[in-house]
Model the fold of this input.
Amino acid sequence: MVNVTICIGSSCHLKGSRKVVEKLQQIISEKGLKDKVELSGTFCMGRCETGVSVTVDGEYFSVSPESVDEFFENVVIARVK
Done:
């Protein structure tokens, strides 16, 4: 199971965390990966100056609503396989 945690704190919310969450949910559903990828939310990760803060199995990434597809393909899918 790949664990993806998205910051939903106020700064990340303003940078589009809701759109990131919705897009990740959509991609996971479309690819049939609900049993392989777990999404969760958390509040401030302490990196408010970057984009939306996301961790994958504890490793930090900065994601934007525009970069979700690329992030999923390059980071999450690589860990699912």
Observations:
- Helices lie at 10-14, 17-30, 68-80.
